[in-house]
Specification:
Elements (H helix, E strand, L loop, with lengths): L3 E3 L1 H4 L19 E3 L8 H18 L3 H16 L8 H11 L5 H11 L6 E3 L1 H7 L8 E4 L3 E7 L5 E7 L6 H13 L10 E5 L6 E5 L6 H5 L9 H19 L6 E2 L8 E3 L5 E3 L6 E2 L2 H4 L3 E2 L11 H6 L1 E2 L1 H17 L13 H10 L9 H4 L5 H18 L10 H38 L8
Parallel strand pairs: 1-2, 3-7
Antiparallel strand pairs: 4-5, 5-6, 6-8, 7-8, 9-12, 10-11, 13-14
Helix pairs in contact: 2-4, 9-12, 9-16, 12-15, 15-16
């Protein structure tokens, strides 16, 4: 299949900030889309729009955005011509060319050919429509950076649309950088998928897959009903460790997330964990990954590695520290930072209670309550806490690799399953013994 490109003259029309980075320059061998001059006859005009549509498909534009850009370009081209009033008729003729009548059939035609688009470039107006003009009733989450809305696209897909609270400075560049990061990620059930974006400079938007269950922080607080069981918490920890491993050992280049926290870990209806929000992620040269990368410090209070905060040296251990804090949250259900505590930061509190052998006082009671063998479970909980403390070691070189943590957590999970099976077998044997005892006939004694 030929590769399509806009001519350099065509590209010059896109004077929006950063847009040129989204539209590659033409290369030798490309099928080049020229500017529309208005001198074309109907057949040549149809050929031009077909060529433009093929380019749009390869670039990942949505159907609506394709129409919007084509219409804008044609209107711009015809502004000095008497045909100004006929440009809309020209676009309508294009539908007839594909045996369609109206926008909806064009969209159907388009999406059948856009199946391979991984990250779509949406128009602002279709995301505005999808969220009912960013209605408060569609709000599903909010933070310092922005608000997340539930939206429904024209093909009935349910999505999460992130709108930034304050658009200043290089916000569009930041969003396009996150698009670049997502395009470099492997397909994974443990990473929240970026579906698309809008590059409207005054209000750039990101579109993610919609995860119904809320975030881990909410689940640990009991906002979504019953708190996670110990088995569910272990599975969540393994899911997150796997997600981080996929970033650190990414095939193209290592990626450090820099903002791993419980509110950035989303859970689906089955409480499978998905790591979200790559706004602070850093793509690192494989050579620098062996040592460190000097960067501007980014992260969330309570989760950020103190060594990284003080030196600006970013390594894979920066994410490992944050993961250690999340492990502590999973065991205790306490917040990572709480000024009302004697030790406001959770790692300091956990390390103190561990050294005093008073972990029982901070372990979430919901974990222990349903367990028949509490002593066995306490041993496993202590193993997880020891891993978490190792993750938060002051010396980054003493912290384990995330792949090692995933493996050790799986061993703990396996040990948990074996202990549960042993407990069930013991209970079953006891039940059988009681049943056999009841069935044994009693002898009568004559005097």
């Amino acid at each position: 299949m030929p590769q399509y490109a806009l001519s350099e003259e065509f590209r010059n029309e896109f004077k929006f900030k950063c847009i040129d980075s989204l539209i590659p320059q033409p290369r030798t061998g490309n099928a080049v889309v020229p500017v529309f001059t208005g001198d074309e006859d109907k057949q040549a005009a149809m050929s031009w729009l077909t060529l433009f549509t093929q380019w749009a498909l390869q670039q990942g534009l949505s159907a609506d955005h394709t129409l919007l850009l084509a219409s804008t370009h044609i209107k711009y081209s015809l502004i000095y011509y008497p045909q100004l009033s006929t440009w809309t008729e020209f676009v309508q003729d294009f539908f007839a060319y594909y045996h369609a009548v109206g926008d909806s059939l064009f969209i159907q035609w388009y999406w059948k050919r856009a199946a391979n688009i991984q990250i779509c470039w949406f128009s602002y107006r279709e995301l505005k429509t999808a969220t009912n003009n960013f209605s408060e009733h569609k709000t599903v989450g909010a933070g310092k950076a922005g608000v997340v809305f539930k939206g429904v696209l024209s093909d009935d897909r349910v999505v999460a649309v992130k709108r930034y609270t304050e658009v200043v400075g290089h916000s569009l560049e930041d969003i396009l950088y996150e698009v670049f990061i997502h395009r470099s990620l492997p397909k994974s059930s443990n990473l929240v998928k970026l579906i698309g974006f809008s590059s409207y400079e005054q209000d750039p938007l990101l579109v993610y897959e919609y995860v119904e269950g809320g975030n881990l922080e909410q689940h640990l607080q009991g906002i979504h009903g019953k708190k996670p069981t110990w088995n569910e918490r272990l599975s969540i920890a393994i899911d997150v460790a796997d997600a981080i491993s996929q970033l650190h050992y990414n095939r193209k280049f290592p990626i450090y997330h820099r903002d791993i926290k419980s509110s950035n870990i989303l859970l689906d209806d089955h409480r499978q964990a998905k790591l979200a929000d790559f706004g602070m992620a850093a793509a690192v040269s494989p050579k620098k990954a062996r040592s460190y990368c000097q960067t501007k410090v980014k992260g969330s209070r309570g989760y950020t590695d103190p060594h990284y905060e003080s030196t600006g040296k970013l390594t894979d251990t920066t994410d490992v520290y944050s993961f250690g804090v999340v492990l502590m949250e999973l065991v205790t259900s306490l917040n990572a930072g709480d000024p009302s505590r004697s030790k406001s930061f959770l790692p300091d509190l956990v390390m103190e209670m561990y050294s005093l052998e008073r972990l029982d006082e901070i372990v979430d009671e919901c974990i222990l309550a349903p367990c028949p063998c509490k002593q066995c479970l306490k041993i496993l909980i202590e193993e997880v806490i020891e891993l978490a403390i190792l993750c938060c070691h002051q010396d980054p070189t003493k912290r384990p690799k995330i792949s090692e943590l995933a493996e050790k957590l799986r061993l703990i999970q396996l040990e948990q399953k074996m202990r549960s099976m042993e407990a069930e077998l013991r209970d079953e044997r006891r039940s059988m013994e009681v049943l056999d005892k009841d069935r044994t006939p009693r002898r009568s004694h004559r005097q």
